[in-house]
UniProtKB/TrEMBL annotation:
Protein's UniProt name: Uncharacterized protein
InterPro entries linked: Ank_Repeat/CDKN_Inhibitor, Ankyrin_rpt, Ankyrin_rpt-contain_sf
Top-level taxon: Bacteria
Keyword annotations: ANK repeat, Repeat
Residue stretches of each ANK repeat: 52-84, 85-117, 118-150
Record-linked PROSITE patterns: ANK_REP_REGION, ANK_REPEAT
PANTHER family for this protein: ANK_REP_REGION DOMAIN-CONTAINING PROTEIN, ANKYRIN REPEAT DOMAIN-CONTAINING PROTEIN 66
Organism from which the protein derives: Cystobacter ferrugineus
Keyword Repeat: yes
Secreted is among the record's keywords: no
């Protein structure tokens, strides 16, 4: 029975949508803030995710593209959204030691102790990889060094397990400092 409703040409539409999505992810990875802003202004969802669950914000921030990250945050990209490995954009910054990017994310409302399902915070990632300067930034923004992940480990536990001596010394000293 004919309904009078035109059937969509889904294959053609799907290919167009996929191409726009691919292009958006290339812009995020490559740091093309202006072109990505144009797509966002045209209605592209700011929290678009790829096949690994990485958002545009995750990729832009991980690759150190400050202007692109700022554009995404201004378009209400969610800085707490985790990828399929449970990592937040701030955790990626902590892993890489990108303090400028961490500051940008934190200045735009990222939770300093935000974590994925495993409970690992950015401070824990910074501690694992001996990123003491990053740890200091996170601590100055209110990160709680005693916080535990799902396996009951703290940042100090991770620093010691990974042989991150400077981080372990810094975190151990915090435990000895009177409140």
């Amino acid at each position: 029975m004919k309904t009078g409703i035109q059937e969509p040409q889904s294959a053609a539409i799907d290919q167009e949508v996929l191409e726009v999505a691919r292009t958006a992810f290339q812009y995020a990875r490559g740091g093309n803030a202006e072109a990505l802003a144009a797509l966002l202004d045209a209605g592209l969802p700011a929290n678009l995710r790829n096949e690994r669950g990485d958002t545009l914000l995750m990729l832009a921030s991980y690759h150190g593209h400050v202007d692109t990250t700022r554009v995404l945050l201004e378009h209400e990209a969610d800085p707490e959204r985790t990828n399929d490995r449970g990592q937040t954009p701030l955790a990626g910054c902590a892993f890489k030691g990108d303090i400028a990017m961490a500051r940008l994310l934190l200045d735009h409302g990222t939770q300093v102790d935000g974590a994925g399902p495993d409970g690992k915070t950015a401070l824990m990632f910074a501690a694992m990889f001996d990123r003491v300067e990053m740890m200091d930034e996170l601590l100055s923004r209110g990160a709680i060094p005693e916080r535990r992940d799902a396996e009951k480990r703290t940042a100090l536990d991770y620093a010691r397990a990974m042989g991150a001596h400077r981080a372990a010394e810094r975190l151990a000293a915090l435990q000895q400092t009177p409140a």
